[in-house]
Write a structure and sequence with these properties.
By secondary structure, the chain is an alpha+beta fold. It is 29% helix and 32% strand. The chain has a twelve-stranded mixed beta sheet with strand order 1-2-3-4-5-12-6-11-10-9-8-7, with helices on both faces.
Length: 308
């Protein structure tokens, strides 16, 4: 499975700088001039998204340098495993990394769906996935906007942005679950599990989590993360408006609030990720505010993966 001269080893948080280097090289290989990836973003990947993470690295023995990283993130609520591979340009480890991914996934949950991610421009890796029977499931975009001087938007009578404190997490959770209930791949998550996931996340910014109230009723939320701090950018990790209150301008209000927050602490740009098939109007909102597509990521699936 592993070519001569290479070894497969466990990857840990101590490998974040090495993963960030490979992610940056890969991004710049497919998109010349792409931004560097910071170590905090790599730490988020190696920390695990939901329940845990299985992370491996393929090492070139003579040099001791990592050639690829493979991560699998099981999600018990959604009965799904999210898997990704990042490899050094020219490493040519597409097939081996898929075989390693399948082997680890079979040791986790054979009955779960397996979603494997790939850069939309990485035709070689996508072709290798096709050879294993994987087909395109969904496309996601990474968006970016520059930040100038921006004041907090004026709130109309009865509208309030409340910073989320310890006692308000359940309100945030309820608002989040309602807002995303019609999104692709959504499965309700119990509060205790959701809270543990939020509390264990890398890059938490306690000053950048708000619930929007209208006439005393929670109608939306916006949460930002510091995973882009070391590349001088902000990141909107989640933004949603409950189903009954959509179309009233609350999404733009909260996005403007986040932009103003990052302007106040001197960040130069702001990023977020969005489902390219999102039908809620979010894409139009982001374009209106000035966001542009900087990257494209795709998820692939083979329902019969466990029998490969």
């Amino acid at each position: 499975m592993i070519p001569a001269g290479l070894s497969l080893e466990l990857a840990t948080l101590q490998d974040a700088a090495s993963l960030a280097e490979i992610m940056s090289l890969r991004d710049q290989h497919f998109t010349p001039g792409a931004d560097l990836v910071g170590a905090i973003e790599a730490e988020e990947i190696l920390n695990g998204y939901v329940d845990s993470v299985e992370a491996r690295k393929i090492i070139d023995k003579p040099s001791g340098k990592a050639q690829a990283f493979i991560t699998l993130h099981p999600d018990n609520s959604r009965k799904r495993i999210y898997a990704d591979t990042w490899q050094r340009p020219g490493a040519d480890l597409e097939r081996q990394s898929i075989e390693i991914t399948l082997g680890i996934a079979k040791g986790l949950k054979k009955e779960f769906d397996l979603w494997i991610g790939a850069d939309a421009k990485d035709r070689k890796y996508i072709q290798a996935l096709s050879g294993f029977g994987f087909s395109l499931l969904r496309t996601y975009w990474g968006l970016k906007a520059d930040i100038g001087e921006q004041a907090l938007p004026e709130l109309t009578s009865g509208v309030e942005m409340r910073l989320v404190g310890q006692g308000e997490k359940k309100v945030w959770w309820t608002t989040h679950q309602d807002s995303f209930s019609k999104h692709f791949g959504f499965v309700p998550r119990p509060f205790d599990e959701w809270e543990a996931m939020m509390d264990g996340a890398v890059g938490i910014d306690l000053d950048a989590r708000w619930v929007l109230y209208a006439e005393g009723k929670p109608v939306g939320f916006v949460i930002c993360s510091d995973i882009k701090k070391d590349v001088d950018a902000g990141f909107v990790d989640g933004l949603g408006v409950i189903q009954s209150e959509q179309g009233k301008g609350y999404g733009k209000l909260m996005l403007d609030w986040a932009l103003a927050y990052y302007s106040s602490i001197g960040r130069k740009s702001i990023e977020l990720e969005v489902d390219a098939g999102n039908e809620s109007g979010a894409l139009r909102l982001y374009e209106k505010v000035g966001f542009k597509v900087k990257s494209s990521w795709q998820q692939f699936e083979n329902k019969g993966w466990a029998s490969l």
